Amino acid sequence: MKLLTAAQTREADAFTIQEEGISSTELMERAAKAFAGWFENKFPPSEEVFVFCGPGNNGGDGLVVARLLHQRHYKVQVLVVGDTQKASADFKVNLEQLPKEVPQNHIKSEADLVRLPEKACVIDALFGTGLNRPVTGVYAKVIEQLNQYDNTITSIDMPSGLYTDSQTPAEGAIIKADYTISFQLPKQAFFLSQHEVYVGEWHVVPIGLSEQFISQTQTNLFFTTAKDVAHLLKPRKKFSHKGIYGHALLLCGGFGKIGAAVLAARGCLRAGVGLLTVQAPSAGYTVLQTAVPEAMTLADKHRKHLSELPQEMDKFNVIGVGPGLGTERVTKSTIGQLLATSSHPLVIDADAINIISSSEKLKAQLKRNQLIFTPHPKEFERLIGKSNNDYDRLKDMLEFCQEYDCYVVLKGNNTALGTPDGEIYFNTTGNPGMATGGTGDVLTGIITGFVAQNYTLKEACLLGVYLHGLAADLALNTVGEVSMTASDVVDHLPQAILQLQQVT
Ligand SMILES: NC(=O)C1=CN([C@@H]2O[C@H](COP(=O)(O)OP(=O)(O)OC[C@H]3O[C@@H](n4cnc5c(N)ncnc54)[C@H](OP(=O)(O)O)[C@@H]3O)[C@@H](O)[C@H]2O)[C@H](O)CC1
Ligand SMILES: [K+]
């Protein structure tokens, strides 16, 4: 699904209004109804509600929400912040329509700030997508005060003060919402970990913005839903044999980290690979043969570290390399040999990334292969250097993707896939239970397994990342976030694939 910028969202509003022949206040009514519907499901009418309204249409939404909640018997108060002379037309219309029974206060300066009852709910309608500069002055005072209180804050469309699609300047105050309810589509800002503290838990409510407009709009930013990836899954042919589903090679594991090879191998097999060979240090031979009997194991001549490539490289159609390898000199030179001689698609993770990061010579070899990198943020930093903020990191990622004609799976809360064409796809599955050793190894195996089956590199990344997160989400039911291990994730991969196959 596409992500729209603030400017594109404004155009979508205008287009919808024209297409449907409705007024802007009608669209505002629709948006506020959608928000109020979510709010009613979440908070019972016993809660007192304070709606803080800014001067624009976000504030206008707040006024309609206050009216609607009042009609549903919530005890609502409205606090209009700032200068109402400058308020938007739809704000003014809805201020007129606010029932007399709803108390209204005006906060013009710091002196007008009010204390809130302990249990009251706050609705933040100060600013939405129309924010065009950092929030300062009386608005900032209100935001700072609300952030200090323990009251639950639900933001309309955006946490006020946060820019929708670019870095918010440091001097601006930003609401720290518990919930953000976004209209029609999420915003790019929601997918960046630096914003977690402001956005809180986000939900999207539909408000009927023009599908035609959205499908015509050009963007390089997407978020991945089940519908986006389900159709990528290829059904198995009736006259199947293992040769059709590829032969993957995993170069993984080192002394004390043979488990990384086991996890990657299990991920690869569960992703449906036809044949799998794992080359591992000889100390890992028995472990691998026992733990993953479906995989063929090649024992490296070195007992503890990867030190050689298999003899017959041509029979493999993809190589996954990195998990558990370590960065010993012999392993570095083996990676060098791999990059210099192989023309396979490569899925490069963990220590293989670290090894490449430390050598300009190795980086120079990269352009020979089709490549997928799967770094976590620290590995990514080693590869391309430190970025100032999450937006810059994404920009740096795309530059890297273009320079090396490669894909980067930047792992995190919302794993971001960067493509050589300059697109970014934010994943929507997964949970904090995955923040545990070995889950990345599983992902490397899964993506390698999909490439082996002739999925394009982009499809393999999108599917792999989505299913990996979905498997972890399914594991939540049985093991929860705290106890989740990488093995739980791989154990739930079959269920995740079955679930995705049901999506039409
Ligand atoms: N997109 C939809 O589907 C719908 C969205 N709606 C809601 O509308 C807002 C966007 O409304 P908009 O009026 O464009 O913008 P805001 O309400 O966010 O704020 C704009 C006003 O605030 C002033 N401004 C901007 N930045 C600051 C600041 N840092 N400090 C003070 N004032 C600021 C600006 O005026 P200026 O002339 O001073 O620049 C505007 O007055 C969207 O988020 C939704 O909530 C609709 O309801 C319909 C559907
Ligand atoms: K808001």
Automatic annotation (TrEMBL):
<feature type="binding site">
    <location>
        <position position="324"/>
    </location>
    <ligand>
        <name>(6S)-NADPHX</name>
    </ligand>
</feature>
<dbReference type="InterPro" id="IPR017953">
    <property type="entry name" value="Carbohydrate_kinase_pred_CS"/>
</dbReference>
<protein>
    <recommendedName>
        <fullName>Bifunctional NAD(P)H-hydrate repair enzyme</fullName>
        <ecNumber>4.2.1.136</ecNumber>
        <ecNumber>5.1.99.6</ecNumber>
    </recommendedName>
</protein>
<feature type="domain" description="YjeF C-terminal">
    <location>
        <begin position="225"/>
        <end position="500"/>
    </location>
</feature>
<feature type="binding site">
    <location>
        <begin position="411"/>
        <end position="415"/>
    </location>
    <ligand>
        <name>AMP</name>
    </ligand>
</feature>
<keyword id="KW-0630">Potassium</keyword>
<dbReference type="InterPro" id="IPR000631">
    <property type="entry name" value="CARKD"/>
</dbReference>
<feature type="binding site">
    <location>
        <position position="441"/>
    </location>
    <ligand>
        <name>(6S)-NADPHX</name>
    </ligand>
</feature>
<comment type="function">
    <text>Bifunctional enzyme that catalyzes the epimerization of the S- and R-forms of NAD(P)HX and the dehydration of the S-form of NAD(P)HX at the expense of ADP, which is converted to AMP. This allows the repair of both epimers of NAD(P)HX, a damaged form of NAD(P)H that is a result of enzymatic or heat-dependent hydration.</text>
</comment>
<dbReference type="Pfam" id="PF03853">
    <property type="entry name" value="YjeF_N"/>
</dbReference>
<keyword id="KW-0067">ATP-binding</keyword>
<feature type="binding site">
    <location>
        <position position="440"/>
    </location>
    <ligand>
        <name>AMP</name>
    </ligand>
</feature>
<dbReference type="InterPro" id="IPR030677">
    <property type="entry name" value="Nnr"/>
</dbReference>
<feature type="binding site">
    <location>
        <position position="260"/>
    </location>
    <ligand>
        <name>(6S)-NADPHX</name>
    </ligand>
</feature>
<feature type="binding site">
    <location>
        <position position="139"/>
    </location>
    <ligand>
        <name>(6S)-NADPHX</name>
    </ligand>
</feature>
<feature type="binding site">
    <location>
        <position position="160"/>
    </location>
    <ligand>
        <name>K(+)</name>
    </ligand>
</feature>
<keyword id="KW-0520">NAD</keyword>
<comment type="function">
    <text>Catalyzes the epimerization of the S- and R-forms of NAD(P)HX, a damaged form of NAD(P)H that is a result of enzymatic or heat-dependent hydration. This is a prerequisite for the S-specific NAD(P)H-hydrate dehydratase to allow the repair of both epimers of NAD(P)HX.</text>
</comment>
<feature type="binding site">
    <location>
        <begin position="128"/>
        <end position="134"/>
    </location>
    <ligand>
        <name>(6S)-NADPHX</name>
    </ligand>
</feature>
<feature type="binding site">
    <location>
        <position position="157"/>
    </location>
    <ligand>
        <name>(6S)-NADPHX</name>
    </ligand>
</feature>
<comment type="similarity">
    <text>Belongs to the NnrE/AIBP family.</text>
</comment>
<keyword id="KW-0547">Nucleotide-binding</keyword>
<dbReference type="Pfam" id="PF01256">
    <property type="entry name" value="Carb_kinase"/>
</dbReference>
<comment type="subunit">
    <text>Homotetramer.</text>
</comment>
<dbReference type="InterPro" id="IPR004443">
    <property type="entry name" value="YjeF_N_dom"/>
</dbReference>
<keyword id="KW-0413">Isomerase</keyword>
<keyword id="KW-0511">Multifunctional enzyme</keyword>
<dbReference type="InterPro" id="IPR036652">
    <property type="entry name" value="YjeF_N_dom_sf"/>
</dbReference>
<keyword id="KW-0456">Lyase</keyword>
<comment type="similarity">
    <text>Belongs to the NnrD/CARKD family.</text>
</comment>
<keyword id="KW-0479">Metal-binding</keyword>
<feature type="binding site">
    <location>
        <position position="124"/>
    </location>
    <ligand>
        <name>K(+)</name>
    </ligand>
</feature>
<dbReference type="InterPro" id="IPR029056">
    <property type="entry name" value="Ribokinase-like"/>
</dbReference>
<feature type="binding site">
    <location>
        <begin position="57"/>
        <end position="61"/>
    </location>
    <ligand>
        <name>(6S)-NADPHX</name>
    </ligand>
</feature>
<feature type="binding site">
    <location>
        <position position="58"/>
    </location>
    <ligand>
        <name>K(+)</name>
    </ligand>
</feature>
<keyword id="KW-0521">NADP</keyword>
<feature type="domain" description="YjeF N-terminal">
    <location>
        <begin position="9"/>
        <end position="215"/>
    </location>
</feature>
<feature type="binding site">
    <location>
        <position position="376"/>
    </location>
    <ligand>
        <name>(6S)-NADPHX</name>
    </ligand>
</feature>
